[in-house]
Structure prediction request, 343 residues.
Amino acid sequence: MPTTYAIPDGRTVMAATTYTGTGAAASVSNAVNGVSFQPDFVWVKNRTTAYSHLLADSVRGTTKYIVSSSNGGEVTDANSVTAFNANGFSVGTLVDINASGNAIVGWQWNAGGSTVTNTTGSISAQVRANATAGFSIATYTGTGANATVGHGLGVAPQMILVKKRSAVQAWSVFHASIPNTQYLVLNTTAAVATLASMWNSTSPTTSVFSVGTDGNVNTSAATYVAYCFAPVAGYSAFGSYTGNASTDGPFVYLGFRPRFILVKRTDSTGSWHMLDTSRSTYNVMMNELYAESSSAEVATSADFDFLSNGFKLRVTAIQLNASGGTYVYACFAENPFKYANAR
Prediction:
């Protein structure tokens, strides 16, 4: 266990903020016990009603969003996310993220610093990177030929979410726990698929990620956004586990108490399960949203225990714990294990 941590308090760079919609322009604070930060990536979902997931970031700019549960292109709406504030974000009157009386959650990440032109890859990109927190946002224009894009993290990212902005096209997800000839699709429940032209059969390096010729990631003259995540000891982890179909399910060691978890089955169809400690405040965790679905929040049977050093499966459902099933995850911390308590 490290004696010091780059991110000793996850509240300084990642938040899972719940709020109630007002139907009028409003600001949402991510402050928790006096700790807050300015987010650069905001992912908002209405929990009460079947409205779309809305994803906004500071590189593309305010009033622009894309949707995780759709293959649609970027939308500009003056009533969507209107500001990235020192302690959260502001929303307009768009019902997806501010319907009056509706329960809503906003997951937020800090990409730090400022947006710069990154010419490390063969494609020049606009990048905002927080190397300490292992997160960056990159926008780029495709060439239609095998290429590389700089990510600014200084270490190889283990999960990348890529979306074409300028046209209808599915999301593509790279995850280090699957081969670099394969990919997942964020806006569907599909199992892992094989396509060498997605990542050019090349894993990310400490400076760039690779894109092949597939339209999902690299159509000539099309515009894209990529969200890149690298592991940080005590704060974030990206990996896989194998299910056992038991309520005494697999334990996954993370080295921290989770704040937010994203889990997806890879060997068969399955939802992108999203859980956090703001919506489920004690074990067993069961309030779920699904990245590929606009459906309202579901209170499932007991799914996970969030522990001081990882998480444990408590469900036999094939979506999360089929015998021999394979699953990938992305997790972000409340606190490192050294400072954490179980719930």
